């Protein structure tokens, strides 16, 4: 991990996300790229108006001063931080910057009172999670400690998720993070032990990484729905990070954006890392 992207609106939530990103930067000797995009309250502007605002000297000076205040933190000492200002109105276009800036991870925050659906920038954070090909870390404001000793990866054994699984596995291994793999078995999609073993073997066989044999590694956890299973299992093992595989609207990504998923997320202070195929 060499570069961490931190989208910011200079809010309290963004400030907490910066602290979390700083901890990661120190742990992995990485750089932070703090990004401000003309969006949110400026989103009602036409493209021409947005460009005029972006090019306004006073406006840019206010943003630059906001950056100075935002980054004036003792805990950033020794960390290389870059600032980037873009005039993109559609926040999904953040994906266009990832390759240009050589970003390895995005860190975004969420208001504790609103679950994942209340992430700062509102629906824009959801757009980032759904469109970003770079792993995205969602952290809570009320997270009081920073550690990554226990990482759990939720896997639904969907063969369309093998690319995302391998991507997540590589990311975690490259950053020296050990992780447990677990499957939530629910009454609605109940699988017997025999069917579960066949599903695991089929999923494992479909992986391109021949060294990745997960047949004996997946933990089966029973719960009344997937959302509850993910957060209850994470709570049971005192997880420091939950990894969820996404494929646009498919996979477990739908969990964190439906109403029940928001409720469960609100009950858990555990950071969530989303990885898309």
Name of the CATH superfamily of the largest domain: HUPs
Number of separate strands: 11
User: Within the CATH hierarchy, at the fold level, what is the topology of the largest domain?
Assistant: Rossmann fold
What Rg do the Cα atoms give?
19 Å
Structural class: alpha/beta
| CATH architecture descriptor of the largest domain | 3-Layer(aba) Sandwich
Pfam families: Usp (PF00582)
Family: Belongs to the universal stress protein A family.
Protein name: Universal stress protein
Domain UspA: 1-140, 149-275
Provide structural commentary:
Belongs to the universal stress protein A family. It comes from Christiangramia sabulilitoris. The protein is of the alpha/beta class and 277 residues long. 39% of the residues lie in helices and 21% in strands. The protein folds into two domains: 138 residues, HUPs (Rossmann fold); 126 residues, Rossmann fold, CATH 3.40.50. Strands 1, 2, 3, 4, 5, 6, 7, 8, 9, 10 and 11 form an eleven-stranded mixed beta sheet that branches. The protein is elongated, with a radius of gyration of 19 Å.
Brief overview:
The protein is of the alpha/beta class and 277 residues long.
Give me the secondary-structure topology.
Blueprint lengths: L2 E5 L4 H17 L2 E7 L9 H9 L1 H14 L10 E6 L8 H7 L3 E6 L12 H9 L4 E5 L10 E4 L7 H13 L4 E7 L7 H13 L12 E5 L3 H11 L4 E7 L2 E2 L1 H5 L1 H9 L4 E5 L1
Parallel strand pairs: 1-2, 1-4, 2-3, 4-5, 6-7, 6-9, 7-8, 9-11
Antiparallel strand pairs: 5-11, 9-10
Key descriptive features of the protein:
eleven-stranded mixed β-sheet; 39% helix; UspA; Universal stress protein; Rossmann fold; Universal_stress_UspA; Rossmann-like_a/b/a_fold
